[in-house]
Amino acid sequence: MKNIPDRKEDLINIIKIINRNAKKLIQLTSDILDVTKIETNNLKLNMEVFNLDDLISDIVEDYNNQADKDALKLKYEFLYCKIIDDDNNIEPKIKEEPTKRGTKGSIYILADKTRITQVLFNLINNAIKFTTKGIVKITVELKYDDGKKVHISIKDTGSGIDLSIIPHLFSKFTTKSKGGTGLGLYISKNIIEAHGGKIWAENNTNGKGATFSFSLPLTIQ
């Protein structure tokens, strides 16, 4: 405040720093409030039916419109499930088809749209944070082998998960990220489990990056 720069460009840079840190404070405040709700059993879900395909498509489209496409790109694909028939025969192949809005590939789920969006943003932002260059791929797959479920995976080509934190990855304050709070994954885990789902993570077998996945019961198709 005592040293306001004369050059407009320098002033804009300072305003960007203020704006960026204000957003971090807002996120931190929101996370702390969510942790309090979780620990006092006051995490409420506002259930509604919505199109999961549209939600993820919008997130991917918005990111790719804003991001440096040469450095990092978000991709999204839909995989049809392995279907078990009445004779317990499994189709030999998984059909892979591009997702088109309003087509047979659309998935409608009964869930808290705001909270599922929060989980997706947490996992996607986490993947982007550790991936300076390459691809972050979101995959949605329907599965019927253990009840009707939808599986969502976010796979990156970044630095992977530090082996020392894997056992505690979804616990509070577990992070190797500079400036991270370690609350996002803890909150995401509780949101998914409140929906009757599961969440997990693993390093990719090729040694490049990690994959975070979660499943939700599919009550509506």
How would you describe what is shown here?
- It is a single chain.
- By secondary structure, the protein is α+β, with helices and mostly antiparallel strands.
- Helices cover 34% and strands 23% of the residues.
- The protein has 2 domains: 1-42; 45-217, Heat Shock Protein 90 (2-Layer Sandwich), CATH 3.30.565.
- It is built from 4 helices and 8 strands; from the N terminus they run αβαβββαββαββ.
- The strands form 2 sheets. It has a 6-stranded mixed beta sheet with strand order 3-2-5-6-8-7.
- α1 packs across α4 (184-194) and α3 runs antiparallel to α4.
- Mean pLDDT is 81; it is low at 82-104.
Structural class: alpha+beta
What's the story with the biggest beta sheet? 6 strands, mixed
One letter per element, helices H and strands E, the order comes to HEHEEEHEEHEE
Count of DSSP-assigned helices? 4
Q: Which CATH class of the largest domain applies here?
A: Alpha Beta
Low-confidence stretches: 82-104
Widest β-sheet, arrangement of strands:
3-2-5-6-8-7
Label the CATH architecture of the largest domain. 2-Layer Sandwich
**Oligomeric nature of the chains:** single chain
CATH superfamily of the largest domain: Histidine kinase-like ATPase, C-terminal domain
- Whole-Å distance between the termini? 57 Å
Q: What count of domains describes the coordinates?
A: 2
Write the layout of secondary structure elements.
Blueprint lengths: L7 H32 L7 E5 H15 L5 E8 L16 E2 L10 E5 H17 L4 E10 L5 E7 L28 H11 L3 E6 L6 E8 L4
Parallel strand pairs: 2-5
Antiparallel strand pairs: 1-4, 2-3, 5-6, 6-8, 7-8
Helix pairs in contact: 1-4, 3-4
